[in-house]
Design brief:
The complex is a heterodimer of chains A (273) and B (234). Chain A has 273 residues and is mostly helical. Helices cover 70% and strands 3% of the residues of chain A. Classes of the chains: A mainly alpha (273), B mainly alpha (234).
């Protein structure tokens, strides 16, 4: 029975899965370096073969991530409809922020307190747009500062060495922000709140349950109904075995993320900076 | 025009002034300016050959009207208050005259300097960079730690190919959150607090937002039927 609405293409899902794996790996190797003087950090470094190896792995995987980011950028450039350019990236189907996101945000807050109606979100909720752009700029900031530190001799041909001190702190704080945001807020919104519990499979299966779309993305559903596109975008649920794989993969990453989060919080005061 | 004119006229017009310039004028200023300027040091060479030794010369005579921030200030910096640093700190042996020096450890006095990445994470000891006795101050002209040769004498022991710009990395990095750092390393201070501001701002908005959202959804059941009969899903 076709009762799910297509949301993501296979390419987008593969990108997300690769990003998940590399993000967790970068988080683990990076934290093992940051917590090097705590037993927890030492143990985690030993998982990757010691803190030297974890740094080397951090650099290689980081470079892969940056290449992935560049491929994603090329993907965007190819996907944008350049014939009617400014119009094609403005509108409800685009991830670019628009004024309605701001009003949606405040109306949503009002709904939390029961003061307002639940806003009719379109294809992308403001929190989804925020997640996307946070990763986008986070990749740029962490990537550039990371490259500076991975190739310090090259970097200092164009800037003084004290720029590396600054790059290190920017890299660290941005990484802490990114991990905390993903491990607390992104995981909660995708997994733990009642409408998605135990897991929002949209990013793995590529489709969302129509009932969830109805309550959460009402404007989008209306738009699809009015334009007659809805029928073509309905798909059936994935086979049980594939769903098991989605759950295992998703929860393995959630568990690793929470492990990193808790370990980092517990040991935070023992770090010698 | 005779041959004598053809030879001597250019000689007098061009060669004589050139010889004058090369032997007299340059000797006073230009020749040393390049390598021994107080302010520029080796900056123009740092990405070139990497060989400096043959160009190294002793510092020029002191220039009374040149100020060095934090070291020599004022119009005429020869008064007792002209130098802002201890006189000891410019000596070849920075610890000269310290009592029971032989029985002390570096961290007895320089505790703050033991808390950096090189010491804590790379397990370096003080002497691996600062060398054996006598330890000259970094600013002493012949010290291996002098910024004009630190990259070649110290940094490149581990970081092969280190340039002078590379060695401007601040090893004993100040705590970026402290107000004192605003003075000593303002870029680090502002970068730190701007990043902290972004992080705190994000969580100040999204943490309460997410908690309230989670609580609100406990009291809000989504519809499970949409226009056609569908089975309930998670």
């Amino acid at each position: 029975m076709k009762n799910r609405l297509k949301r993501f293409t296979p390419v987008q899902r593969i990108f997300h899965a690769v990003l998940m794996l590399s993000f967790i790996f970068m988080g683990a190797t990076g934290l093992s370096r940051m917590y090097m003087n705590t037993p927890w950090g030492k143990w985690m470094g030993s998982l990757f073969g010691g803190y030297d190896v974890s740094l080397a792995a951090h650099k290689y995987v980081g470079i892969c991530m940056i290449i992935g980011f560049l491929i994603h950028f090329l993907y965007l450039m190819i996907k944008i409809n350049w014939l009617n350019f400014p119009k094609s990236v403005i509108g409800p189907d685009s991830l670019l922020p628009r004024p309605k996101d701001m009003t949606d945000f405040f109306q949503h807050i009002g709904w939390f307190f029961g003061a307002k109606k639940l806003p009719e979100f379109d294809r992308w909720g403001y929190w989804e747009k925020f997640d996307y752009w946070a990763v986008f700029w986070g990749m740029a900031i962490i990537g550039v500062t990371g490259l500076m530190m991975a190739f310090p001799l090259f970097a200092t041909r164009y800037m003084p060495g004290w720029g590396l001190n600054v790059a290190f702190w920017i890299h660290r704080i941005e990484a802490i922000l990114a991990m905390a945001h993903v491990f607390i807020i992104h995981f909660f919104i995708a997994h733990l709140r009642r409408h998605h519990f135990p897991m929002d499979r949209a990013m793995f299966e590529g489709s969302s349950d129509l009932a969830t779309i109805k309550s959460e993305k009402a404007a989008w559903l209306d738009r699809l109904k009015n334009s007659g596109e809805l029928e073509g975008m309905l798909v059936a649920q994935a086979a049980p075995l594939r769903r098991v794989v989605f759950y295992c993969f998703g929860y393995a990453v959630v568990a690793s993320g929470l492990f990193l989060l808790i370990g980092a919080l517990v040991n935070f005061r023992f770090i010698l900076w | 025009m005779t041959l004598k004119h053809i030879i001597f006229k250019p000689l007098i017009c061009f060669a004589l002034p050139m010889v004058t310039c090369v032997f007299i004028v340059s000797g006073i200023g230009w020749g040393q300016e390049e390598t021994a300027s107080f302010i520029r040091r080796y900056k123009q060479y740092e990405v070139s050959s990497g060989y400096y030794e043959q160009y190294e010369v002793k510092p020029r005579h002191e220039r009374p009207f040149v100020e060095i921030p934090g070291v020599r200030t004022g119009r005429f910096p020869y008064s007792p208050s002209g130098a802002a640093v201890r006189f000891n700190a410019r000596r070849a042996d920075a610890h000269q005259g310290i009592r029971f020096y032989e029985n002390r450890r570096c961290e007895d006095c320089h505790m703050a300097q033991t808390l950096d990445l090189h010491t804590i994470r790379a397990n370096l000891t003080c002497r691996q960079c600062h060398g054996g006795e006598p330890i000259a101050n970094n600013d002493h002209y012949f010290s291996p730690m002098n910024p004009i040769r630190r990259h070649a004498y110290v940094c490149s022991k581990c970081h092969q190919g280190a340039s002078a710009a590379y060695s401007a990395y601040v090893i004993h990095e100040p705590n970026p959150s402290l107000m004192a750092t605003q003075e000593s390393f303002p870029v680090l201070f502002y970068a730190f607090w701007i990043m902290i501001g972004i992080a705190v701002g994000t969580f100040a908005v999204f943490l309460p937002h997410t908690i309230l959202w989670g609580i609100r959804e406990l009291f809000f059941k989504k519809e499970t039927t949409v226009e056609a009969p569908h089975e309930k899903q998670t």
